[in-house]
Design a protein that fits this description.
This protein is of the alpha+beta class.
């Protein structure tokens, strides 16, 4: 029976490897940080998608739960790819961000400009940076939270300006 141990190990590893490959093919498992909202707005305009901006902080346990239980699974599923572009704004990051007007700003200043005073906060933005749906603040009622996110996305999509005639399929795989 000693000779079969190697075979069983291989039999276990193959399904895990296939699962890893299939998850990666669906979409990334992490939320990209926001760096240039002007470029992101142009991409959202071209592809007729909403920008879902998750405003978080490193120390916020509810932010980590939101990402693990809702946002990452949304990315991995690929189900939202044609409807939104997701990015994360960490208020405690020290780097700079280009805003929708092209000006360099900080994460804290950008959060303040949107009136964010609680994390996590989900903002549903149009290509010009306007909020298109009611923001979601905090992590309330986890059993219904996915529905709240979907409602915000649908509301924002209805509020988007009409798609340009040359709207194309999404270019990235993170939404």
């Amino acid at each position: 029976m000693l000779g079969t141990g190697k075979r069983r190990g291989g039999a276990i590893l193959w399904p895990l490897l296939l699962l890893a490959v299939s998850v990666r093919a669906a979409g990334p498992a992490h939320i990209l940080p926001v760096t240039d909202l002007r470029v992101l707005g142009d991409e959202a305009r071209r592809s007729h998608r909403v920008i879902l901006l998750a405003v978080t902080t490193r120390w916020c346990t509810y932010c980590h739960q939101l990402k693990a239980d809702f946002l990452r699974p949304m990315l991995v599923s690929g189900d939202y790819r044609d409807r939104l572009i997701m990015r994360e704004l960490k208020l405690d990051d020290t780097g700079t961000i280009r805003d929708f007007a092209g000006k360099i700003t900080s994460a804290r200043a950008l959060g303040s400009a949107y009136g964010v005073n609680l994390t996590p906060t989900l903002l549903f933005l149009g290509p010009d940076g306007r909020e298109l749906a009611q923001r979601i603040q905090g992590l309330t009622t986890p059993d219904f939270f996915g529905g709240y996110i979907d409602r915000g996305i649908e509301q924002a999509l209805r509020a988007l300006p009409p798609a340009p005639a040359s709207a194309s399929a999404p270019e990235d795989d993170d939404g």
